[in-house]
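Tutorial, part two.
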Amino acid sequence: MAKWLLLLLSSSLLFGDQWNTIYLTSFPRSGNHWVRFLVEEATHIATSSIYRDRNFTHLPDMFPWGGFCTDHGYTHQCRYPTIEDPILLKTHYPFHPKKIDLESKRAICLIRHPIDAFSSFYIFKGGIPGTRIGKKKVKELIARWKGFYEFWLNQPNVLFIRYEDLHANTPFYLRSILETAGFSFHEQDIERAVMKYPPQGMVLKHIHSYQPEDIAMIKEQLSEFLIRFGYEI
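Running the prediction step on this input gives:
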């Protein structure tokens, strides 16, 4: 095992739960990777995931704070966090069942309109872009989206950020994410990160992947959440 990893492991035994971890949580396909790219470029500190992601392959060994990292970040130019740094740790819990420790932990929760999140997830899992999502799949995703945000709305110390707001004003919301996590940064760090990883595409770009009755079902069954998160019905 590499010497730096042995040192980190011994540090974890010494400091225990003193790692300054903050969860970056989201329903799948709601901007988690994009935010991690932005944060790494702004801070030059590698972010982590509780899963060993295959998309942007993470190293095989878990780090002491309980997460996996890519090799020195996505672009291989970041340093690994120390005990004094904030650690941004990706999770999709409870969508994916790998449990997390929420005691005394904070979280930043990303929300993306279900019309885009469902369609993007469907394509990610092998669906053909542009094809309509079946009613059975839409019903399943409605239930899982609802359960996901019910869980996080009942947790303390959670900052909710809409993907659409981050898309519309990336500098403002990136600044909010960095401040909430406790990173040190300068305005030029924000500018550099947004210039390198600007928002892509359009919001509600997947609306034509649904039958009208499926859109009506999403609105009806998720109306409480859509209103609470500021989406127009």
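The domain at 21-228 is CATH 3.40.50.300 (Rossmann fold). In part three we will examine how such features are distributed along the chain.
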